[in-house]
Amino acid sequence: MYAGISADPIGDLSLHMSERLYYSDSFLRTFTGAVTDIRELTGSNGELIWQLALDRTTFYPTSGGQPFDTGQLSALSLDGTALNVPVEQVEEDEQGEVWHFVPKPLVAGTLVEGLIDWERRFDHMQQHTGQHLLSAVFWRELQAPTISFHLGENTSTIDLASEPLTHQSLERVERIANEIIGEDRHVTTRDMPRSEAEAMLAAGQLRKLPDRQGTIRVIDIADYDKNACGGTHVRSTGQIGGLQVRTVERVSRGVRVEFVCGLRAVRAARADFAILRETSALLSTGATELAPAVRRLLTEGKANARERQKLRYELAVLQAAKLAMEEPIENGLRLVVRSWSDRDRDYVKLLASRTAIAAPQTAVIFCANDADPARVFVARSSDLDFNCGQILREALARVGLRGGGSPDLAQGEVPAEQEVALRASVSEAICRAMAEAHKQQ
Ligand SMILES: [Zn+2]
After folding, report:
1. Average pLDDT estimate for 320-347
2. Residue 251 and residue 152: Cα distance in Å, rounded?
3. pLDDT value at position 11?
4. CA-to-CA distance for 242 and 231, rounded, in angstroms?
5. What is the dihedral of CA 119, 122, 126, 132, to 10 degrees?
6. Facing residues of 221 across strands?
7. What is the DSSP pairing of strand 374-380 with strand 362-368?
8. Around 15, how many Cα atoms within 13 Å sit in the side-chain half-sphere?
9. At the N or C end, where does the chain have fewer CB atoms within 10 A?
10. Confidence of residue 12 (pLDDT cuts 50, 70, 90)
11. Radius of gyration in angstroms for the set of CA atoms belonging to the chain, rounded to a whole number
12. Whether pTM exceeds 0.85
């Protein structure tokens, strides 16, 4: 533990909740305070983590959809040495205490200087104030109330209790939000008794009021929106920097709208542009011509697929006739046995059924061994009356495998090294079935 500090310089701190300095100044980046309490716990990887409570803090704990701040605490020792401790996470408990997660312990009473990661915080303030504005525009323009908010790593979302939104109304909401950003309206905060907030809500001057008792903190976007909130906000709408609506999807309770503000909007537009540029280069066309170009490609692709199917069929018919013709009839049976490693399974199956009907007295055992296990097909012409499904099922069962099919076409899979043996076993079974039939006649 770090203990170069005179203990308890400001009385019994454990009785007090942390004073949240960001309530009165969300632009405060540094502060001095004292450790009032410390808790030790084990992290998910077995490492020790300490949680510190301070008498005052400007670190924002995760709440109201806004993530926590990160930063650093510097312990100020009397002997001139300093200890810097990173703040990796900040959470509040049910009693309202703010806990700073740190990888090194500091004893209660230690004086610290806190510094928050300003880039992270300002980004959160932009997204969060942008959310107030976007929710306000949805409420005023479409009477769609916001029921939840999530500020994510890359984008944020609000859920609206609303019917699906049209493109036109989304674009209008986005444009109005950006006009208000351009107007650079003041964003102010005022604490008031709950009774006053309730009166404002009843008069339609307050968009939303949470259940909590006591003092209510109201965020006011000048002449546009008032909403109760405990988060951190920019000073004027201009500082939101711009707002871009991204995707919209239906969720169980309504509609989820994804949006980005400030530099996130610039990054999102830049990433979109990179995709457009790459795709345009691939298709040798301008970005505005991409949709018709892709549509043309899809149409061509479908026509090509249809043509390919037709040609495959014609090829199978021709190849089947040739295969049947090449094979002599012995004992009343033309048995065609072949294996292909350069044809796909669908084609070999088509070829098997076409060869079986290309000429009478024909049976085929075809294998597609383009992959292991190989696929084996057994088929016969309609004038023969043995059962392909039964023959293949029994041949596979003898080596512990499964497969089968109808009397005139059957298929199964066999490990590549067993393919030759299986073909021989099925050939024998077919010849035996033919001999049986001959005897009975
Ligand atoms: Zn807020």
Report:
1. 93
2. 17
3. 37
4. 20
5. 140
6. 187, 225
7. antiparallel
8. 4
9. C
10. very low
11. 37
12. no
**C-alpha 92 to ligand 1 mean position (Å):** 17
Report the separation in Å between the CA atom of 130 and the middle of ligand 1, taken as the mean of its atom positions.
Answer: 9
Query: What's the rounded Cα separation, in Å, for the pair 380 and 324?
Result: 12
Q: What is the mean pLDDT of the chain?
A: 92
CA of 228 to the centre of ligand 1 (A): 7
- pLDDT value at position 15? 52
Between the CA of 225 and the centroid of ligand 1 the distance, in Å, is: 11
How many angstroms does the Cα of residue 201 sit away from the middle of ligand 1? 17
- In the reported structure, the alpha carbon of residue 125 is separated from the centroid of ligand 1 by a whole-number distance in angstroms of 8
Distance 219 CA to ligand 1 centre (A): 7
CA of 409 to the centre of ligand 1 (A): 69
The Cα–Cα gap between 235 and 181 comes to 12
Spacing, Cα 171 to ligand 1 middle (Å): 24
237 CB neighbour count, 10 Å cutoff:
26
Amino acid identity, residue 208? K
C-alpha dist (Å) from residue 291 to 69, 282, 288, 300 = 42, 13, 7, 14
Which two structure tokens, joined as six digits, stand for 81? 């040495």
Report which DSSP code applies to 226: E
CA dist., res. 114 & res. 21, Å (int): 12
Q: Which helix (H) or strand (E) holds 290?
A: helix 290-326
The one-letter amino acid code at 142 reads: L
- Ligand 1 centre to CA of 89 (Å) is 20
What is the amino acid identity at position 3? Answer: A
What is the Å distance from ligand 1's center to 38 Cα? Answer: 29
Joined together, the tokens standing for residue 217 give 């903190």
